[in-house]
Write a structure and sequence with these properties.
356 residues, alpha/beta, Rossmann fold, 2 domains, 4-stranded parallel β-sheet, 13 helices, 14% strand, globular, binds ligand F0G, Threonine synthase, EC 4.2.3.1
Length: 356
């Protein structure tokens, strides 16, 4: 790694496929790998990216690719984070962008970002999957509009750099836990590790563990029940709106990554997700949105189920920032007291008395 130039995602430009005359970057990647207070567990905090999620890693490559191919118009279906990221990178590149969003099911921070960056927002009745299908159909019919969803291979090229960063800092972990929605990211990260293994940089593959929300878990159920193909749903539901997806487009790739790495998949309840989000914040000082906290909820489940040993080095990928979804944070509940400003000390003294 010592000879590498560039920063963040583009530090690994030699490993990123494609030719780029011009790169559209907002200094994405290079996110902190935070060691847990408990030791063997690490958190890869993707909330530290320019728009607050891992999507920026893929978007810098996909938008650079769109610009180099001469596209002027781009489109993406999204549960919110792809939207915010695509809007920011399109703005920087001077492209016109359309976002297809599930009406009333996008966390307010993500919607607000998309508005701020100047995207045109097209809201559909129904889940992300309805928008995804419409975008794929549009791309077939109208080739002049460039799609930014994760079936776009350049997105995954950028996202794989997360593996490069982990390997550069701590080598190859034993397990990597990734929240799974449309299922591109787990594959991208696995691909990154596989390339590092093939070039001799690391000597073993981490087991990839995919974590889904119980109400949107076709891939986890397929892996657990050893099915050849997932049973999809048209009514996905979870508090983790980022991964509220019933028909993940990249399901084959995700299952390949999981199986070939000898990993597994599991699902967690909304209560476990919100509990993990609260624990990350209150025990570790890390603010992650619910979908991100799913990876940590999955880690705790995996420990209990004996799928991961407590002595193993585990990296939880925290895909997005807590600020993305203020409503979820408010649900964590706090002690809020209306006070007479002259008597703040009384509250603290009261607490100290109660302690002793
Ligand atoms: N975590 C967060 C915070 C996400 O926004 C997403 C996906 C995922 C995990 C799952 O990643 O789809 O590659 O399996 N969000 C997409 C979006 C669907 O539109 O922002 P995946």
């Amino acid at each position: 790694f010592s000879k590498l130039r560039g920063r963040g995602v583009w530090r690994y430009s030699d490993a990123i496929a494609g030719e780029y005359r011009k790169i559209v970057t907002i200094n994405e990647g290079g996110t902190p790998l935070i060691r847990s207070r408990q030791g063997n567990v690490y958190f890869k905090f993707e909330g530290a990216n320019p728009t607050g999620s891992f999507k920026d890693r893929g978007m810098t490559v996909a938008i650079s690719s769109a610009v180099n191919k001469g596209y002027k118009i781009v489109i993406a279906a999204s549960t919110g984070n792809t939207a915010a990221s695509a809007a920011a990178y399109s703005a920087r590149a001077g492209l016109r962008i359309y976002l297809v969003l599930p009406k009333e099911k996008v966390a307010i921070g993500k919607l607000a970002q998309s508005i701020l960056y100047g995207a045109t927002i097209l809201e559909v009745d129904g889940s992300f999957d309805v928008g995804m299908k419409a975008v794929m159909k549009l791309y077939r019919e109208m080739g002049t509009v460039y799609p930014l969803n994760s079936f776009n291979p350049w997105r995954l090229e950028g996202q794989k750099t997360l593996a490069y960063e982990i390997a550069e800092e701590i080598g190859s972990p034993d397990v990597v836990l990734v929240p799974v929605g449309n299922a591109g990211n787990i594959y991208a990260i696995w691909k990154g590790f596989k390339e590092l293994l093939e070039s001799g940089v690391i000597s073993k593959m981490p087991r990839m563990i995919g974590v889904q929300a119980e109400g949107a878990s076709p891939i986890a159920r397929a892996v657990i029940n050893n099915l050849d193909e997932p049973t999809f749903t048209d009514n996905p539901e979870t508090v983790a709106t980022a991964i509220r997806i019933g028909r993940p487009v990249n399901w084959k790739k995700a299952i390949k990554a999981i199986k070939e790495s000898k990993g597994t998949a599991l699902y967690v309840s909304d209560n476990e997700i919100l509990g993990a989000q609260r624990e990350l914040a209150r025990m570790e000082g890390i603010g992650a949105e619910p979908a991100s906290a799913a990876s940590y909820a999955g880690y705790k489940r995996a420990l209990q189920a004996g799928l991961v040993d407590k002595d193993e080095i585990a990296v939880n990928v925290l895909t997005g920032h807590a600020l993305k979804d203020p409503d979820s944070m408010i649900k964590s509940g706090a002690r809020r007291i209306v006070v007479n400003p002259d008597y703040l000390g009384d509250i603290i003294l009261g607490d100290l008395n109660a302690d002793s």
